[in-house]
TrEMBL record:
Record has Ligase as a keyword: no
Residues covered by the DAGKc domain: 1-129
A Pfam family reported for this protein in Swiss-Prot or TrEMBL: YegS_C
One of the protein's GO biological processes: methylglyoxal biosynthetic process
SUPFAM superfamilies from the UniProt entry: NAD kinase/diacylglycerol kinase-like (SSF111331)
GO terms for MF: kinase activity; methylglyoxal synthase activity
UniProt keyword terms in alphabetical order: Kinase, Transferase
Domain of life of the organism encoding this protein: Bacteria
Name listed for the protein in its UniProt record: Sphingosine kinase
GO cellular component: cytosol
Length: 324
């Protein structure tokens, strides 16, 4: 009889409220009793996932926010054991990009125990900060340097827990007032070294953010490539051009055939550039804040990141799986 492990963040949800739903779903689909693992501040999910794999489970369910999902997925990368999502955070970035249910635990558990599988890419990154040892991590959605990383570093965690995404408003304002720009050199897929000054650079495995923001419109979670955006605004006009591109063209025009025809008449703007590639090596002139999947990872002076294609299996609804 198959067994699942459920790794949950007790800050995000109550286990007692889930147990009846889990029991119903596992019994309906002929699974054995689920193993439960609670995350802690010191062990946010990695150790629990390794313990679950030692128990030879057939499925791991990550119940929590983006941080919990990333840590669990990092341990499952390359294992072949499917990851199911029970979203319980403010962003739920991977669930959004896979068009999974965000606020229906019962449906999410039906997908976990009775859904199909989909192989997706993961990003692997090596981060170096000065003379410190290089640290390696995996991520599912995006890695970012600049505005978004500074925003996350400035976010009040207590306010975020109470107000969700509204907590980021103050942090965004603080980041936008920061006049420092990134001075960086990069190589894409082993090509020549290029030098650029930018406000923000984001390396994406997926393209959608909360509030229906489509930042990387051509990003696909299983295409074996990163989509990279470089923001280089010069003053207010530059920011207006970026907003028009992201919110109007990506968010509105791109979603209809008529809108896509109109997009063909618009010009590219210097303030925003898109790149594609499988490996990016990047060096900065000074330490800068870096984030992975919405969590701050301190500062970096250089990074190397690459795509690990279709290295993670995720559980998706059966009706979606059968239509693929």
């Amino acid at each position: 009889m198959k067994r699942a492990a459920l790794i949950y963040n007790p800050i995000k949800l109550e286990a007692d409220e889930l147990k009846e739903l889990v029991t119903t779903a596992e019994q309906e689909h002929g699974w054995g009793e689920t193993l439960w693992f609670e995350t802690t501040e010191d062990e946010p999910g990695g150790g629990q996932t390794r313990d679950a794999l030692k128990e030879k489970v057939d499925l791991v369910i990550a119940a929590g926010g983006d941080g919990t999902v990333r840590v669990v997925a990092e341990e499952l990368r390359g294992s072949g054991i499917p990851l199911a999502l029970l979203p319980a955070g403010t962003g739920n970035l991977l669930a959004r990009n896979l068009d999974l249910t965000l606020d229906d635990a019962g449906h999410a558990l039906q997908t976990a125990f009775g859904g199909g599988d989909r192989a997706i890419d993961m990003g692997v990154i090596e981060i170096r900060d000065g003379e410190a040892a290089t640290k390696r991590h995996s991520y599912l959605v995006m890695a970012g340097l600049g505005l978004d990383a500074k925003m996350l570093a400035n976010t009040d965690d207590e306010l975020k827990a109470k107000a969700g995404w509204l907590a980021y408003v103050k942090a965004v304002a603080a980041a936008l007032r920061d006049k420092n720009v990134l001075h960086l050199k990069y190589q894409l897929d082993g090509g020549g070294t290029r030098t650029v000054r930018a406000h923000t650079i984001m390396i994406g495995n997926c393209g959608s953010l909360p509030a229906n923001i489509l930042l990387l419109p051509e990003a696909a979670v299983d295409d074996g490539e990163f989509d990279i955006v470089v923001l280089r605004p010069e003053g207010v006009i530059g920011w207006v051009q970026i907003m028009v591109k992201i919110f109007w063209e990506n968010g509105v025009l791109r979603r209809t055939s008529a809108g896509r025809k109109l997009m063909g008449l618009t010009k590219e703007v210097r303030a925003l550039n898109y790149l594609k590639g499988k490996e990016l090596v990047l060096k900065l002139s000074r330490p800068e804040e870096i984030e992975l999947d919405g969590d701050s990872f301190g500062q970096a002076t250089s990074i190397r990141t690459w795509v690990d294609p279709k290295s993670l299996t995720v559980r998706i609804p059966a009706e979606v799986s059968s239509g693929r």
